[in-house]
């Protein structure tokens, strides 16, 4: 329905808002692809642009170029002095870069909305941290080697498909009730079941349709993707929906990656200290680029690993005591 440029601490992204005929919700895609800002005068991109097919179509009732501009169907960068509407006739399906090299598959995360974790910084889950980490990792530049032997750095590219499936699909009301059950000692799986829900009621058909529209992992001419997740059920359901996954990429909680940093701080200027500083820099969501931590979060993370089969190794101090 609309696409717009949004500057973030991790660089510029394009936010797409989708309507669908299945659940009536407005789902989103956060697309990281600096090639979107290229103009026809710029050199051909080294990687295929991540472009919405439905966005570039001519819609019924559109009478002017400005109609297309307002909904985001443009190429390059909008400015007060000029703009250029996109053409529905240009297809990137058969794209090949002029360098004749392969580039890493786009990195994609399917992320479910979490009001508590993303908006008020709840430490019952790591959702706010995961959303920030996903955008940061997708935006990281990568290096490719040209046939000449020259190493070329290219911008990161991919997308976060943001699904309005609060509380693993049970909705905000039931999720908050489940929190009260968790205070009584039940884990997140037990609480959902006690409320008459499944442990995970999310579906991924709409997410697959969004990815197909963007040319990511599904549909003719699309690229295979690297999927950023620890959840084997998500991998299976996306593959069943026709999404081609070249690689599953793990998301390790920051507090586990930086475990022991406070007890054994690295000298300033070392790679370890530089990495820790980057994690503490500005980021998206209320949590930003800081670490989420606390006993309730640790219980939640252990439940995902031990009860829901997430592909994630517990820290050494946890794995022994919770085997």
TrEMBL record:
Keywords: GTP-binding, Hydrolase, Nucleotide-binding, Riboflavin biosynthesis. One of its GO terms (molecular function) is GTP binding. GO terms for biological process: riboflavin biosynthetic process. It holds the Pfam family GTP_cyclohydro2. Pathway: Cofactor biosynthesis; riboflavin biosynthesis. Residues 102-249 form the GTP cyclohydrolase II domain. Its EC number is 3.5.4.25. It catalyses: GTP + 4 H2O = 2,5-diamino-6-hydroxy-4-(5-phosphoribosylamino)-pyrimidine + formate + 2 phosphate + 3 H(+). InterPro entries: GTP_cyclohydro_II, RibA, RibA-like_sf. Gene3D superfamilies: GTP cyclohydrolase II (3.40.50.10990). It is an enzyme of class 3 (hydrolase). Belongs to the GTP cyclohydrolase II family. This is GTP cyclohydrolase II.
């Amino acid at each position: 329905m609309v696409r717009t440029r949004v500057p973030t601490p991790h660089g510029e992204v394009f936010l797409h808002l989708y309507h669908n005929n299945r659940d009536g919700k407005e789902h989103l895609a956060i697309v990281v692809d600096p090639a979107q800002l290229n103009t026809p005068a710029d050199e051909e991109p080294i990687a295929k642009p991540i472009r919405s097919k439905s966005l570039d179509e001519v819609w019924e009732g559109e009478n002017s170029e400005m109609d297309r501009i307002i909904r985001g169907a443009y190429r390059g960068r909008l400015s007060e002095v000029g703009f250029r509407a996109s053409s529905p006739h240009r297809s990137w399906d058969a794209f090949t870069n002029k360098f004749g090299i392969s580039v890493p598959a786009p990195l994609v995360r399917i992320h479910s909305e979490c009001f508590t974790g993303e908006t008020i910084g709840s430490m019952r889950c790591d959702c706010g941290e995961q959303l920030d980490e996903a955008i940061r990792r997708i935006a990281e530049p990568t290096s490719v080697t040209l046939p000449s032997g020259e190493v070329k750095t290219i911008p990161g590219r991919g997308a976060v498909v943001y699904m309005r499936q609060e509380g693993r699909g049970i909705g905000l009301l039931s999720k908050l009730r489940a929190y009260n059950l968790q205070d009584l000692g039940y884990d997140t799986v037990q609480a959902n079941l006690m409320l008459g829900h499944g442990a995970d009621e999310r579906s991924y058909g709409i997410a697959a349709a969004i990815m197909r529209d963007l040319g990511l992992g599904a549909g003719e001419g699309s690229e295979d993707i690297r999927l950023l997740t620890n959840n084997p059920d998500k991998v299976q359901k996306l593959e069943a929906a026709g999404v081609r996954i070249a690689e599953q990429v793990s998301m390790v909680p920051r507090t586990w990656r930086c475990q022991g940093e406070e007890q054994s701080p690295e000298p300033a200027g070392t790679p370890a200290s530089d990495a820790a500083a980057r994690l503490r820099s500005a980021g998206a969501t209320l949590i930003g680029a800081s670490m989420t931590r606390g006993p309730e979060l640790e219980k939640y993370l252990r439940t995902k690993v031990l009860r829901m089969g997430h592909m994630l190794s517990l820290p050494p101090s946890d794995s022994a005591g919770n085997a």
